[in-house]
């Protein structure tokens, strides 16, 4: 798996190891695009929350956003095409504290797996997001015995009160709810980086929630951003692995010329594009994988002369000339920044080609077991417990997601439990299940 969302042979990837950076998060985005398209949701903001971090990305018309300017820690830039995934330190193990200014902070420090959150019972002593969810009834204390023999809820409550509640002058439940709200606010900021900052309106997308913790916080995040709908796949915990299975073969080529458009040699550009196309087609031909279709796309990284940041411009499929390139750049710049600057010269930085070998589609039926489904919601319900919503406890239905009918309709508040995650349906929201076992949550007015 490469960071661009495509797969290549091991023999090829050892020569271009840098291209594997961020391949794990990218594979989750590819699975989201695949699942969302099958569910009739090609426009998605992906939200992958795990134990230590949250990854977000944008998918438009089934195609993930790609960037050449991904920056790793310590300001290390990686200038190869990658799925544009933004990561922040907000996961189930993120530690909450009150800083010296008296403000509540969540992350980026994490309790990790050992000792982990307090509720793991392995010696953790710092309040975390997972502990907050447990205190607020969103996690079942009896389902954590696989981590520790006993989970002492009073012990966790006492730590929240001492370390968070007392400094903030609130009770432990209010402190736990504040921890989740601060985390949601941080995650919303990262989501805006892949949507609003790129000229996209989050309200035009569905939120695709996966990872072990994503489905539990998805409705709150969607409400914060004005996103109308949440899509939770059948197996949120293995979405990244699924991406490795459904991803197409993909090769990217980049050639830097760094020339003002009015001075660029059009014949040289055409020759470079042809050479890159031929190399990509040959590499795919050598792969021992069945391909249904091969697609070639060309683009240019462009900027105004004197600018630092670049803008990717798709090349027209017909004859390439200065006029068509200038027009494509003008439209791309206006689409991103809503301004036209005809008096400033354009510059071509990179010439890019992507060659994709589309593999046969894979049936997702194996992700669910229709035979194990109950015939009614009543039979799929496994209990009721109080869950904290909007400042108070509310009696909440708890369902076994694996047993839900594939045409189930559930009104919040509700909790759907499965092996790899918990789906939280907030008051006022409504969830329906589709034929592939996805849960579609339509947000209503908060109650």
What's the structural blueprint in terms of helices and strands?
Layout: H1 10-13, H2 23-38, E1 44-49, E2 54-60, E3 63-64, E4 66-67, E5 70-72, E6 76-78, E7 82-83, E8 86-88, E9 94-98, E10 104-110, H3 129-135, H4 153-168, H5 172-193, E11 206-210, H6 214-225, E12 229-232, H7 239-246, E13 249-260, H8 266-286, E14 293-304, E15 311-314, H9 322-337, E16 346-358, H10 377-380, E17 381-389, E18 392-400, E19 409-411, E20 414-417, E21 422-425, E22 430-433, E23 439-442
Parallel strand pairs: 1-11, 11-12, 18-20
Antiparallel strand pairs: 1-2, 2-3, 2-8, 4-7, 5-6, 9-10, 12-23, 13-16, 14-15, 14-16, 17-18, 19-22, 20-21, 22-23
Quickly list its features.
447 residues; 28% helix; 10 helices; alpha+beta
Descriptive report:
The structure is a single chain. The protein is an alpha+beta fold. Among the domains are: 94-183, no CATH class; 249-358, Dna Ligase, domain 1, CATH 3.30.1490; 368-442, no CATH class. The protein is built from ten helices and 23 strands. Strands 1, 2, 3, 8, 11, 12, 19, 22 and 23 form a nine-stranded mixed sheet that branches. Strands 13-16-14-15 form a four-stranded antiparallel sheet. Strands 17-18-20-21 form a four-stranded mixed sheet. It is globular, with a radius of gyration of 24 Å. The mean pLDDT is 90.
